[in-house]
Amino acid sequence: MATDPFLFAEILSQFVERSGYTTGQLSKLAGIPKATIVNWTEGRVKRPRGHEDLLRLLAALRLSPTEASRLLEAAGHPGLAELRLLAQNEANVELTHLLASWTTPIADTPPLPAPFQAIPDLSYFVGRATLLEHLANTLLSSQQGAVVTLYGMAGAGKTTLAAHLAYQLRPHFPDGILWARVDISDPMSILSTFANAYGVDASPYVDIDSRGRVVRELLAAKRALIVLDNVERSAQAQPLLPPTTHCVVLITTRRRNLSVARGGAQFPVGPFNEDGRESLQLFRKLLGEEPDPAVRESRRAIAAALGHLPLAVDIAASRLAYEPGWSESAFLRRLRQEQRRLQELAFEDQNVRLSLHASYDGLSAAARQFFAALGVIRGEDFGPEAAAVISATPLEDAEDLLRQLFSLSLVQQGRPGRYQLHPLVRAFAREQLSPAACLDHERRLAVYYLTFAAAHARDMQALTLEQDHLLNSVQIATAQAEEDSLPADTALLSVLPAGVAAIYSFWETHGYYDLATEQLGRTENALRRGEPAPALVPVLRGLGRLAQRRGQYDAAETYYEEGLTLARAQPPEPENGAAYEANAALISDLLRNLGVLAARRGDYALADAYYQEGLALARGVGQSNVVSNLLRGLGVQAFMRGDYARAEAFYEEGLALAQSAGELDLRSGLYWALGMLAEDQGDLGEAARYLHASLELVRQMGQRERETAILRDLGLIALEEGDLPAATTCLREAMALARALGHFSRLSGILLAQGEVLLLRDAGVEAEGMFVEVLGMAKDAGNQAMMAEALFGLARAAAIQARWPQAQAHAAASVNLFKTIGHPKAAEVIIWQQAHAIQPHQV
Fold first, then answer.
1. Which of 90-99, 537-546, 581-590, 713-722 bottoms out in mean pLDDT, i.e. has the lowest?
2. How far apart are CA 50 and CA 638, in angstroms?
3. Dihedral angle, C-alpha 697, 700, 706, 710, nearest 10 °
């Protein structure tokens, strides 16, 4: 027998290369160390010590009897015939088992061609590259009897993916690929088809057990891939599973909880990636390249409207490609009509609605009703509590039903403990509701989320989590209130004002001013359909704050004063308990806001009066958060008058209240105020520490509006310290954020600060641009203090450019305004005038 190790290594390497397996995959299939196989193929081992491991490797390589004998002899071992005789003479059970892979006579007989029953592969298949790679690696390295599962919602492309994979892996399964659509064929017929593929007639076996045994015996020594498509129940797949051998089973299913899939690898198949690349690839396959960017954007918008569901994108692309008269923009307009969306998603035998029906029809009546109710829920995801209230289902039952729908891929998991619906599934669920039922569920949704908002008014994290639902609730409530054909919903209208007020605080914190303006305006109109009532007060306060944030002080004052009138019309008796306290807090806060307006206009005496009245009322009802806010306002008043000790006392008292109440928002504001106080007293290090503490809290809460002001003040401190690069960085960041928010009063302060930086750099022209923009906004808002600041800046910018008449005119106007409002900065401008009075004569 040949013992040339290089001949053995050469022959073995050829067989390994032909198999397509890596040494790691062969190691798993044969159950022998990878290093052993590498040593054999590279000729490091002259002669394998025993034939047992070699036989295991030959079986994994699926060598014919002739090939196996040749390699055994090249390794210095007996061929198959001698080994079989040896096993019989010695009654060697282990060796007999190892030789079982070669049960045919040594003389090779022409084999039947390996069956390939996979459905056609799509010529326009796109994407899924990473998933395909993981699947291929798993199937090729699977242990004996492995079951691999592809699961996901209807239309995700599980069957298409399995077919594409079958064509890719065909060379690696020498005994064929079997395919069965188990939801439309019975197990007996499928077993007959499998047996016929290997030349065996299984029809004489008339019961499932005996016919299954025949097929299992056929597959016992084979390396085949068995695809069981669209499994709905484990009972459909169980009789079709092969013995625990080298065969691998790939299941496609909408269920996530098949018992036959336990212990095996499971791969979720979802929509295409949200970035749209795979969807656009599919469009290009069927429609060609986009002729212009507008078409590409329309295709991207179509895919987004379809939630990137492969079946839906395929249908849309096919209709655009093969039906006349379509354009991408026209098709997109149809899809944006939610009531028509599913109607548009049908192309010959492809139909998204029918595909979803297959899952829906299998639900119980209670599960169908529950699922349909979820169709009114919009937004990223939702919790079980919301689903229970909206569907009028006990919470524990709702949790069980959500788990059931999840197992059927009708809902998906969202953020921890929450669920979400694909947009097409949501549209399908909504279709199952009658108009009356839809209206009822929407009302339940709006009441639930508006009540939630009022109960979590100061919990920005909770409001952030539910922000989409909160907006949807306001829209539902105002739409129903504005609809003359609908009877007034007392429950809905009763929770609308407090809910909207709480949601407004979230919108204000995040700088969503345009959104807040639109929704508060709609709420105001809905509530004004009757006589103005105290319920309107929190809405008026929100509208006033919006106007104030945009520098529209006259409009803000009008809103606050009407709100104050309505609030004071409430019964004043303290025995009214919580209602009295809530109304007192509203009045105190309106007084505080009116005080802020008075201070912005330079009327500090009026501002003090408002603050003191509000403080007395808030202290009387123990509203610590309102008291803290008013103390801060009084501190600002004392600060503006130069009474630093009194200002600090107000701030510290307010901070203690905020800390004991756990009010992050108030703590942030008071840290900020203390920072400004330290800065004005020349302690820049202490000022920066307070401001950074405030900045950390506002970023934690997502308060983008206040972040702009703190960044501005940090820029000003850096400016005072002479660190112009740091000042510029802070101010540019603050300016970009303020412009994005549309916060003109904040923007004015930042522009003034940036103008100061430019003046220090002698950039008079650039600085002048900043001050001109501020002056325009200040005039529109009627803000005399800001106008005076802008004019002083323009005076200095003109001086840098040696434009002395303009400099003196701007300075004189600035002094007059500062004196009019009693602002101490008038003296600073006068000193500047005196210092530059001789300059014109030297020019």
1. 90-99
2. 96
3. 50
Given a cut of 80, whether residue 5 has pLDDT beyond it is no
Shortest CA distance to 246 belongs to which of 212, 228, 272, 219? Answer: 219
Residues 422-427: what's their mean pLDDT?
96
**For residues 570-591, average pLDDT:** 77
Q: In what order do the strands lie in the sheet with 266-268?
A: 177-181, 225-231, 248-253, 147-151, 266-268
Which burial class, exposed, middle or buried, applies to 87 when counting CB atoms under 10 A from its CB (0-12, 13-18, 19+)? middle
Quick check: 91 and 79 in contact, CB under 8 A?
A: no
The proportion of the chain whose per-residue pLDDT surpasses 70, expressed as a percent, equals 95
Question: Confidence class of residue 581 from pLDDT cuts 50, 70 and 90?
Answer: confident
Judged against a pLDDT cut of 60, whether residue 842 lies above it is answered with no
Task: Using alpha carbons, list the distances in angstroms from residue 725 to 665, 690, 714, 760, 775.
Answer: 30, 21, 12, 12, 26
Q: Checking phi first, is residue 782 left (phi over 0); if not, alpha (psi -120 to 50) or beta?
A: left
The CA angle 253-257-260, to the nearest 5 degrees, is 75
108 contacts 138 by C-beta, under 8 angstroms: no
pLDDT bracket for residue 560 (50, 70, 90) = very high
Alpha helices in 144-276 (DSSP H): 158-169, 187-196, 208-219, 234-237
Residue with tokens 């002001």, as numbered in its chain: 709
Which helix or strand (DSSP H or E) is residue 583 part of?
helix 578-600
Quote the pLDDT of residue 383.
95
Whether 743 has a pLDDT exceeding 80, the answer reads no
Q: How far is it, in rounded angstroms, from Cα 255 to Cα 362? A: 12
HEC readout, 463-499 = HHHCHHHHHHHHHHHHHHHHCCCCCCCHHHHHHHHHH
**Predicted local confidence at residue 531, as pLDDT:** 61
What is d(CA 778, CA 790) in angstroms, rounded to the nearest whole number?
Answer: 8
Residue 148 one-letter amino acid: V
From the list 141, 148, 145, 139, the residue with the least C-alpha distance to 169 is 139
* Helical spans, DSSP H, in 511-552: 513-527, 537-549
Nearest to 71 by CA among 24, 23, 14, 111: 14
Residue 116 phi, psi dihedral angles, 5° rounding: -140, 100
Q: How far is CA 255 from the centre of its chain?
A: 24
Distances (CA, A) of 211 to 226, 229, 349: 17, 20, 34
691-710 pLDDT per residue, tens: 999 999 988 887 887 888 89
Higher pLDDT, 788 or 458: 788
20 CB neighbour count, 10 Å cutoff: 12
d(CA 799, CA 185): 91
658's CB contacts (< 8 A; 6+ apart) are: 624, 625, 628, 666, 667, 670
Distance CA(570)–CA(578), nearest Å, equals 13
Classified as helix, coil or strand, 268 is: strand
268 has which bridge partners?
151
**Tokens matching residue 219:** 């597959």
Give the separation between CA 637 and CA 493, rounded to whole angstroms: 39
Q: Which of 164-168, 513-517, 725-729 has the highest mean pLDDT?
A: 164-168
**Whole-angstrom distance, CA of residue 471 vs CA of residue 503:** 8
Mean pLDDT computed over every residue of the chain: 87
